[in-house]
Amino acid sequence: MARLPLFLATLALTTTGIAVAQRAPVTAPSAALLLATKAPTRTAANVARDRYRHPAQTLAFFGVKPTDTVVEIWPSGGWYTEILAPYLAAKGKLYAAAPNEKGLATVKAKQAAAPAAYRTMVGATFPASDAGAAVPAGTADVVLTFRNVHNWRFGKTDQTQAAFDQMFAMLKPGGTLGLVEHHLPENARGIEEASSGYMKRSSVIAYATKAGFRLAGESRVNANPRDTHAYPKGVWTLPPTYTEGQADRARYAAVGESDRMTLKFVKPR
Known about the structure:
The chain is α/β, with parallel strands linked by helices. About 35% of the residues lie in helices and about 20% in strands. Helix 2 (about 30-35) crosses helix 6 and helix 9 crosses helix 11.
């Protein structure tokens, strides 16, 4: 009987046409993954944000193994790179994929400062272009993207579908796309994806499904019930950006980082 409410909830979602994935059981992070989150090469400021981003639990949910070939899309300041590089250093491989060399500057500086921890990291161009080497098709076990979909959708040009198509191409059959994105509830009123920086779950799933992915699971590990999603300058009002400066800073700090969806997709075999 205890399972009946869950069954009814799942049935209701299915009949509305919204893609449904079973809630995966919690996967405990391995000792190797926990060790990577404690790597001495991580910066103190990044470690302080673990309480918002739950990196060990997130990567465990995505099933990232130390022997995998992993692509990190748009690593930017290298927050996750600081964990992935030492985790994959012995037996795996890490592609840091960005639009250009400027987008890789920070992670390459980290690599120069700690070559042993970053010894299997190589740069790649994403979206693929003639400007640099792309990730070879069909070679990745896992592709990871953190809070990038809103940038692709609402940048100078809409690159969203092309991005999902290229990530699909990178993966081996059976490979995983792990995605974390600022989450806008489906029933949100008066809050637009374009101006808020949040994305609806249905929007993200539509792009992924069109590319050929199957939704395999989702987790609430990065959900934040304190996030109202309605702020003067969108998601960037919250930490770590604090676009409003000192105005109401204590209130936004109490909210913490944004409410996020954590979705696991697979490339069918």
